[in-house]
Design goal:
Length: 339
């Protein structure tokens, strides 16, 4: 191919490349080196000038010179486009509406615990907290679980060593309160508890409890029943009925488990209450005199009641949640439903 023809081809090709160029710093620089670089196309054309026949030189000179001008103009245009891009990157439109930052909201179990706490606070209960890492003494010994007592097997325990464990219930807060306050004592103790159980849809190794404790002179079982009745009616609805079933806890005597009429089917029987019409919601009883004495409270003068309930289960029943693991997975799609 003659050099003249080559020059014309390059000129046409440049226009095509320019039309298809995706303008970035790199692509413009690459193109510039290709045409205007030291070893670029334009210089190679100029170098060929000497080898041309004299009659070709005029036309060739015109083509290459106008090509050179065109290249210079087009690269200036490209440079301008690039600096415009730079500017628009930093451009901030102050008239745009703002973006709302995502705000957090309370976990459904925390919501349940607050609602329950509020009802008891209005009945005169103070809120108390205790450590999640406990000693055997507070979790068991002082609650009338003697060493090697089979009742310890009721609660599969995570032991850290022989003496230190993750609390299996909120009842150690009863002991800590009895040792630090004088009767009358009326407290509610919400918190996290831990049990060494296989994780499944129905049980988890981490869950929550809300403990209640009332100690004064002449506290009776009927006061316990009334308090729980008022609570259940306020929380679950005024039609709810309570049923006390005899039970056993080492730290209460007598002890009971409390069922409420199913608030889904009003006691008629449905899938949630497994056709029984009843839902178990808590354990309770009169504080065992041994427990009072172990914490230095005169069991001749004082008596008291205690109860413990599970807000995880209550939240599951309330919202029809069938898998307890959902509470602990932090899945935003699940949690956002409780905004
Ligand atoms: N601590 C008991 C449990 O975890 C519940 C309970 C609390 C029972 C207070 C009676 C009184 O099973």
């Amino acid at each position: 191919m003659s050099l003249l023809l080559e020059a014309k081809n390059y000129r046409d090709n440049f226009r095509k490349e320019l039309a298809n160029l995706n303008i970035t710093k790199n692509s413009v620089e690459e193109l510039r080196i290709k045409y205007l670089g030291k070893k670029g196309i334009l210089n190679r054309l100029f170098q060929g000038f000497g080898s041309l026949q004299p009659e070709e030189r005029k036309e060739f000179g015109q083509i290459v010179n106008s090509f050179k001008n065109d290249l210079n103009v087009q690269f200036e245009v490209l440079q301008n486009k690039l600096s415009e891009q730079e500017v628009s990157k930093d451009f901030f439109d102050y008239s745009l509406p703002g973006k709302k930052p995502e705000t957090g909201y309370m976990h459904p179990i925390s919501q349940t615990m607050r609602e329950i706490s509020k009802i008891f606070r209005e009945m005169g209960f103070d809120i108390e907290y205790g450590p999640e890492v406990e000693t055997d003494y507070y979790n068991f010994q002082a609650l009338n679980f003697p060493d090697n007592h089979p009742a310890r097997d009721m609660q599969d325990t995570f032991f850290i060593n022989n003496d230190i464990l993750l609390r299996t219930h909120t009842s150690p807060i009863q002991v800590r309160t009895m040792q630090s306050q004088k009767p009358p004592i009326r407290i509610l103790a919400p918190g996290r508890v831990f049990r060494n159980e296989a994780i499944s849809a129905r049980s988890h190794c981490i869950f929550h409890q809300i403990e209640g404790l009332y100690i004064d002179e002449n506290v009776t079982f009927s006061e316990l029943k009334t308090t729980l009745d008022i609570f259940a009616k306020r929380y679950f609805g005024s039609k709810v009925k309570l049923r006390f079933r005899p039970s056993y806890f080492p730290f209460t005597e007598p002890s009971a488990e409390v069922d409420i009429t199913c608030f889904i089917c009003n006691g008629k029987g449905c899938n949630v209450c497994k056709k029984t019409g009843w839902l178990e919601i808590l354990g309770c009883g009169m504080v065992d005199p041994n427990v009072l004495e172990a914490s230095g409270i005169d069991s001749e003068k004082y008596s008291g009641y205690a109860f413990g309930m599970g807000p995880d289960r209550i939240t599951m029943l309330k919202y029809g949640i069938t898998d307890i693991r959902m509470f602990f997975e932090g899945d935003i799609r699940f949690l956002q439903q409780f905004k």
